[in-house]
Amino acid sequence: MVFITRFSVKLARLFRLAMLAAFLLAAAQGHASGIEPQKAVAVFSDSHIEISSRFNITLSPALEQALQSGWALPFQFEFQLTRPRIYAWAYQISDWFGPTETFTQRLSYQSLTHQYRVNSGGLSRNFSSLNEALSALGIISGWRVLIDSNVVHDGKDFAGRVRLKLDLSQLPKPYQLAAIGQPEWHLDSPWIDLTVASESEAVQP
């Protein structure tokens, strides 16, 4: 009888530990950082292609702390031409197998005004909350690529893809070194294929 009672106590204790572990795992997954693609479209014009896309961004606690400490975090949109293959190969060779074109936005925190700022191409937008800033940061609309390219004039065989990442290479060297081996510092989305669409179907801010 004593053995059964002790066994029951140990079993109950193991059950509680298992439930606690499951709760902590769920909490960790609920706060997991990452970048998830939502939509990406390409609109053809007479002289270029305009890309509009939307990504959901979640920062890790380490990145939020870095932001609060005054770091500006550079997020880079990357476009890669995948077809026509001959043009895609030529662009990859010219960029040493890098993306065809890139566009960078920077996220920062202004401690004096308690606002978050998204800077893109010299233009700045301020937001009162991090969620609002991340929402704006994850959207690009009317990004012009392949200007005056032959691809623009023959879009029947066009295919491309985009992604968004935290570009650690644009941080100062000491910060790059600090990020080595730290998974919470590495944020990038999977590639998402572009859908050729009309202007009215483009992603709006």
Task: Please explain how this structure is put together.
The protein is of the alpha+beta class and 205 residues long. The protein folds into 2 domains: 1-30; 33-201. 32% of the residues lie in helices and 35% in strands. It has 6 helices and 10 strands. It has helices at 2-30, 61-68, 85-94, 130-137, 150-153, 173-179, and strands spanning 34-44, 49-58, 73-83, 101-110, 115-120, 123-127, 139-145, 159-166, 192-193, 195-196. The chain has a 6-stranded antiparallel beta sheet with strand order 6-5-4-3-8-9, sandwiched between helices. A 4-stranded mixed beta sheet has the order 7-2-1-10. β5 (115-120) and β6 (123-127) form a beta hairpin. The longest helix has 29 residues, at 2-30. The radius of gyration is 23 Å and the shape is globular. The N and C termini lie far apart (69 Å). Mean pLDDT is 83; it is low at 14-31.
SSE arrangement:
Elements: H1 2-30, E1 34-44, E2 49-58, H2 61-68, E3 73-83, H3 85-94, E4 101-110, E5 115-120, E6 123-127, H4 130-137, E7 139-145, H5 150-153, E8 159-166, H6 173-179, E9 192-193, E10 195-196
Parallel strand pairs: 1-10
Antiparallel strand pairs: 1-2, 2-7, 3-4, 3-8, 4-5, 5-6, 8-9
